[in-house]
Amino acid sequence: MHSYLPFEKPVIELREKINELKSFTEEKDIDLSGEITNLEDRLKQLEDDIYGNLTPWQRVQIARHGERPTTFDYINQLFTDFLELHGDRLYGDDEAIVGGIAKYKGQPVTVIGHQRGKDTKENIRRNFGMPHPEGYRKALRLMKQAEKFSRPVICFIDTKGAYPGKAAEERGQSEAIARNLLEMAGLRVPIISIVIGEGGSGGALALGVGNQIHMLENSTYSVISPEGAAALLWKDASYAKQAAQTMRITAPDLKELGIIDEMIKEVKGGAHKNLEKQASYMDDVLERSLHNLCQRTADELIAERYEKYKQIGEVTGESVVTGEREN
């Protein structure tokens, strides 16, 4: 049984009622098929109403769901022969970023992604998916190795942001992120980045300079969290819900703004509801992207990457976020 979010309560209650009636039918041998069918129709309509009209804040909640699939979940579903590689050859091995060599439909690729935990113990081990500098240097080492052996790079983005602690700053957090941006911009192999959960700040961008960027439907990608933006703009983090609306950080908004290339459909209710089905949706997009990019020469890949990022953030005359808040 999956844990559910507050706005899902009506769906969960109706589903439980249907299960109760089915159990009662089996135990008492009473035909309630008509009532069950009516309730199932109501359930389908209710799911369409709720999941088909999600607010930005509700999408943020789904992106943060504790059971949401992680990088390793998708690696196991989409790739074969995965061999994890460790360490940055400078300081140590950061378990908040995982990566290695794998095969995608028989083609050798390099896979890199943020990795958070599914429980408290693993979250502590993975530092809640917030990398230190050695994590980004490990990612860069694997990218340069991929370039050497002409392997496409596939990145999974899922982090609240780079770890802001003292030790991370002492070891060069900002330089490590900046180095990744610089090197990824000139990498001579295809790069595909997919936001699978939260994509927060430079911690996400350090794996996000790709030829194509895709997002799961209920993922977020932003320079700062809604809570952080609310605290800066309105001096009150409780306005996070309004900030999420204003910032336009969801996949539908970013697709409209031209920041991402494709929004990947999610299973109704979120990717955690059905990992296998969600992976199949991702598989379709990944296969198409990889096929298209592998037709390009190295110079074309770099030129297209440059043009892509040059166009992001162009001023169009539209209104921008202000420091005012609604009463």
Describe the fold and architecture.
- β2 (97-104) and β3 (107-114) form a beta hairpin.
- α6 runs parallel beside α8 (173-185).
- The model is unreliable at 319-323 (pLDDT under 50).
- The protein is of the alpha/beta class and 327 residues long.
- It contains 14 helices and eight strands.
- The two termini are 39 Å apart.
- InterPro entries: Acetyl_CoA_COase_a_su, ClpP/crotonase-like_dom_sf, COA_CT_C.
- It holds the Pfam family ACCA.
Q: What topology emerges from the helices and strands here?
A:
Layout lengths: L8 H20 L4 H19 L4 H8 L7 H8 L1 E5 L12 E8 L2 E8 L5 H6 L7 H16 L4 E7 L6 H5 L2 H13 L5 E10 H5 L6 E5 L3 E3 L3 H9 L5 H8 L3 H7 L4 E3 L10 H19 L4 H14 L16
Parallel strand pairs: 3-4, 4-5, 5-6, 5-7, 6-8
Antiparallel strand pairs: 1-2, 2-3
Helix pairs in contact: 1-2, 4-13, 6-8, 10-11
